Amino acid sequence: MDVYNLHKKIDLVLAEEVRAYSANGRIGGGLGSMNVTLQTGVPNLGYSTRGEIPQLLFDTSDPNVISSPNSNILLKLYSSLDGDGKRSFETYLIAHLRKDSPYAEVAYLNLFVLYKVGALLRALNAAMRTLPSDEKISYDNMLAMLSLVISREYLEIDPETYEKIKLMLQRTVGYDFWLEKKVNLALLKHLERDLNDVNPEINIDRDKVLEIWGRKFSNPDVPALIREIDENFRDGEFSPTKLATCIGRIRVLIVEVSKRMALSAAQSKGDNSIDESSDEHHFFQYLKNQGFINDNEWNVLRSLYGLASDDGAHSLTSNREYARLIKNMAYELILLFLSKYEI
């Protein structure tokens, strides 16, 4: 799609949003076609009874609450574009985050769409420079939209972005819709989520695995895998792709430990029945056949491998909880094997 036609299509949507805002805005805090208003910026408008702390964020971070027909059209249009088209799309919306734009009063829609396509910081930086005016309503509505997004989707924005938003907010004048307080609270929510994955006992056992492995094996792959798995839990929300990546690395860890133990045992016996190219299940079977693990441990090993290979039976748990369970079980089983057998 050429740039001219792309801009024409975007103009159609923005013009319709201006009409929606004229009909549904300025009264009761409406934001055009958006399904939220300025009155839904916080669960209880920041009000609290005596002894309670005002609730600025919703109980659950949910990226599927805020929407509008016009934002949906723009997002579908964006998804249909190639790389150059996407860049032109973003640049055009950002260019209209200025006070003399014919679409200035619907800057809230531009900001929301740009946030959804990953251009929030660029949009916010431009808007804070070129959107404020004496009348200010367009600028206020844009900040209100940012406030709404943080209230509803606080875990969808990464901590590094929040830190940059905090710096930008220092340039904000007038009413800020609790933005600074919401950003601080959102960062706290990220910290709480990260600490949910911290189990001191598991972490101690993980360190024991690394210490024993370093004494018994020269292979660096297992420590590297453990570091990679732990980093996955510190790196944002668990999407289906993130879950697959994480449990995939845990599966590789289980195989790598079994392989190195089996090969070391075979080498000590002068046994050439297995080598580097052997199937991974042969390593499990070899450890059992040679008495390095008993029948029950062999069953646990194979079951854990299966859990790390198939994530189709965890509908009652979240992605993160499912992956954390497999990770913790893997560390404990590996520690058992390493502690029990001198190879």
Number of strands: 0
Domains counted in the coordinates: how many? 2
Helical stretch count? 14
Distance between the termini: 64 Å
User: Helical proportion?
Assistant: 55-70%
Over the alpha carbons, how many angstroms does the gyration radius reach?
A: 27 Å
Profile the largest sheet: none
Quick one: overall form? Answer: elongated
Proportion of residues in extended strands: under 5%
Q: pLDDT under 50 segments (min length 5)?
A: 44-50, 312-317
Task: Please state the average pLDDT score.
Answer: 85
Return the string of H and E elements: HHHHHHHHHHHHHH
Please state the structural category: mainly alpha
Q: How would you describe this structure to a colleague?
A:
The radius of gyration is 27 Å and the shape is elongated. The protein folds into two domains: 3-192, no CATH class; 197-340, Four Helix Bundle (Hemerythrin (Met), subunit A). It has 343 residues and is mainly alpha-helical. It has helices at residues 3-24, 69-79, 83-95, 107-116, 120-130, 137-153, 159-169, 179-196, 200-216, 221-233, 240-269, 280-289, 295-307, 319-340.
Detail the topology: elements first, then pairings:
Blueprint: H1 3-24, H2 69-79, H3 83-95, H4 107-116, H5 120-130, H6 137-153, H7 159-169, H8 179-196, H9 200-216, H10 221-233, H11 240-269, H12 280-289, H13 295-307, H14 319-340
